[in-house]
Structure formats: C-alpha cells, structure tokens
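Reopening this one. Same input as before:
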Amino acid sequence: MRLGEFDPADMNPYSKLDLTVVESPEHQELAIQTAVKTFVLLKNKENVLPVKEKIDNLAVVGPFADSPSVIYGSYAPDVSKFTQTPRQGLSQLAQKSTKYASGCLTPSCQLYDAEDIKTAVTNSDLVVVCLGTGVNIESEGHDRSNLSLPGQQQRLLQDAVMFADGKPVIVLLFNAGPLDVSWAVNNDAVSAIVECFFPAQATGKALYRMFVNMEGSNPAGRLPITWPESMSQVPPMEDYSMDGRTYRYFKGDPLFPFGFGLSYTTFTYSDLTVSPSTVKPCNTVSVSVKVHNTGSLAGDEVVQLYLSWHDASIPVPKWQLVGFNRTEVQPSQSLTIRFSLIPRVMAVYTSQWVIEPGVYTVYVGGQQPDQATKVPSNVLNAQFKVAGSVTPLSKC
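Same output, byte for byte:
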C-alpha cells in the first residue's frame, strides 16, 4: 500500500517507469558503487593494495575467476550481458598479458587441474586467486557441514602460491558464510585477502576500482559476522542457547571478529565525551568522538559504538553494537561523530523490557574492544550511570 499499488496511476510516480530504465547507466553505476562498498579487506601485507602501477603479466585463477553465474547470490535475475567477471575487470591492470585458469570446472572443485594453474601463474607479476562457495554449496536448501574450502580449492591456492615463486598473491573470496582460510591468513606468501561476498553484475568493475583505489573505492566494508577460526568454535546446531554465538556471547579469539575490516589508510580516535554522566532511566545519553585520518589516502571509516552492562540482574551480552556511522575522512582531517543512546538500546528483558539502574560502559572505535585480530586504530571507552528504580521501557 505504501508503494501506491491501489492509487490511481496519475498519483503513483512508479507507474511512469517502464523497462527502458532497467540497467540504465545510472543503475549500472549504482551496482558498481554498491559492490565496492561491500568489500571487506581482511589482510594487506606491506600494503600490496592498492596496486601502485600497471603490471606486465597478470594471472587470475580459480573457479570464481571468470564464471558469471557463480558470483551471484540466491534468487538473482539474469543480467548476464551486463556482468563483468574478476578476470574481465582486473585485466585492465596488465600492460602485456592476463592469463587465466579455472583449475576446477565448478566451485565444488572435485576435479582439479594443477597443470592449468601452473601454466597461468608461472612468470606472472601478480596472481589473483578467486575462491569461495556459490549458491550450489551454500544457499537455501544447501547447508555446509564444515568451514573448509570446497573440494580441492585449498590445494589450488597452495599451488598458486608455490608457482607464484614469491610474487604477490591476492585471494578473493566469494561466499556468504565464513571459510577456513587460516592457511592464507598465516602465510606470508599470501599478500592480501578480500571478502567479496557475491558482488553480482558489477564484480569486475568494482574490483578494478578497489585494486587501483579510484575515488570512493578505498575498502571500508566491515564483517557482519563473527568468523570462527575452526569448527571447534562453532556451537552444535542442537544447542539453542546463545552461549558462544554471535560477537555478543562469543568466547575465545575468532579468525576475524564481527565489525572487522582494514582500510588503505589509518585512523585514530580521541576526545570521547559521554553526557550527562548520570541519567534517569528514560533519558537519552549523548556520545561524541573525534576520528582522525592519520594516513595519506582518503577513506571511509566505520565508527562503531558498543554498550555493556555492569549491574544487570540477568545474563546480558559482554557488549552490544548500538550504533555506527560510515563517513569519508580526508588525509589529516579530523571529524566529530555524534551518537544518541536512547532508552531502547539500554533496555534488558526480564519479563518485559526494562531499564535497570547501574553503571554502563560505552566503547567507541573502528572495531570491537579487546580483540586479538584488530585494525590499527584505538578503541576508547567511558562510563555513565543510570540512577533511579527499574523502569519498564513502555513507560519511557
């Protein structure tokens, strides 16, 4: 009803649209920008990204390197004629040649051709390895029983690193849920890892923009999940409690924490203020912090605001995301970011949603506090107190 489905045509602006607007230049540009904004930079050893100059010989390998169908998520429309694969987009980096090998016919990678990978990778100046799952491995009706890279993809990656013979290797991951990529994370021969998810039609163009850091393409995606290091950190499906689930109750050190993501630049935080320091249960708390770009490149920073309870009468998360702000910060620029902590985000559930008196801690930074795997910025914290009696949220 809100879309005006029952309104007369002359009152509904959508009725004036026809198929000529589908895949218009504006829509295609939006697809590129959307894909760029979702990329999460997980590793960037010695700042191999962005690529500083064109290279002579590029290799793009793996089952996701040049297969349009596998870079889409579930229930995607058929827009194959507008789709650009990683191979097609990244070939612009090479001045002489772009060599390609899938290594596997499908993402399941049951049959693997090592010679195919060797031929493509040998004597290349930069190697891009495209791995992942695809909707035939993880989607509605397709569940995974482990975190392993499918089939022989791990061997493909290890062979690509070996055949690269010291040249930079960049891993692109196309998947929805976490994968065990600890070998790539811990191996210095793998220079960079990018979580791409399923970028769909704009994959190639978006990757090229990110690789060369075109304006607005400095990666600033942040993980929306806790990425376990191994199956030992995944609770049994039969356990319906929240124990060990999500960043709020996770125990131990994951491979990558919720909210994690690197940038081509660096940030620091200062001047955290929380006011007032004491409030009544239904009052709002104001939070402000200054974020400073300490690097040489412009980039978006995702300022994350977490809250923890000290005196709750029931079990509560160790902390919980209650706000975030994504904003571009120029080199050497400082910006003040402001949040409002409304009563709803302070509430806990007993037999109803209530706000309880006690001490609360606010954490602000580009990541969660106290993480073993962290981005190179600081996290600030401050406390405030809720004074009074337990108050139902419905009374606020």
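So the earlier flakiness isn't reproducible anymore. For the record, Helices lie at 25-38, 86-90, 114-121, 153-164, 182-186, 203-212, 246-249, 343-346.
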